[in-house]
Amino acid sequence: MSNKNIRDIKTAKNYVPTVLLLDDQDVALTIHVALIRKLDPKIKTVVFKQPKDALDWLKTKQADLIITDYIMEGMNGIEFIESAKLTKHAASTPFVVVTASHDTQVHLNLHAIGVYKAYTKPVDIKSLSMTCRTLLNMPNEKQSMPS
Asked: What contacts 46, CB < 8 A, 6 or more positions away?
């Protein structure tokens, strides 16, 4: 079987993206899983409640997108992202943060470490969905109408 035309696994015909979800609240995880499933039920989601467990997973596996909380027990979102970026599998993965923090400095710090987008809870699901679509290189929901 020859795949000379495939330069990257993501260009393979049957490639299925993986989204890592990290939040210590079950309700937030349920909402995020539903959002990803609505984008495309084939997208694989891996769910963690503890940052350390997510970091252990990232030592051997790769996600195409990571959506994380900021306020978590034991490690905040910035500490998690900085640690994750040190793993070879998440060094270039885009991060989106969904947080209850309204602190402007927290949001500035998140952007300073390279977070693509930081949302404040309750998150605008349409906006988060569009961001996920963009980062996963998915076509827009709205298809142009023929003239």
From this structure: 18, 19, 20, 21, 57, 61, 63
What is the number of other CB atoms lying within 10 angstroms of the CB of residue 87?
Answer: 17
Asked which of 28-32, 56-60, 96-100, 136-140 is least confident by mean pLDDT, the reply is 136-140
Assign residue 86 a region (left: φ > 0; alpha: ψ between -120 and 50; beta: otherwise): alpha
Q: How far apart are CA 60 and CA 133, in angstroms?
A: 25
pTM of the predicted model, to two decimals? Answer: 0.86
CA 89 to chain centre: 13
Q: Tell me: the pLDDT tens digits for 108-145?
A: 999 999 999 999 999 999 999 999 999 998 766 543 33
Helices (H), the chain: 26-39, 51-58, 77-85, 104-112, 125-135
| Rounded (5°) CA angle 137-141-145 | 120
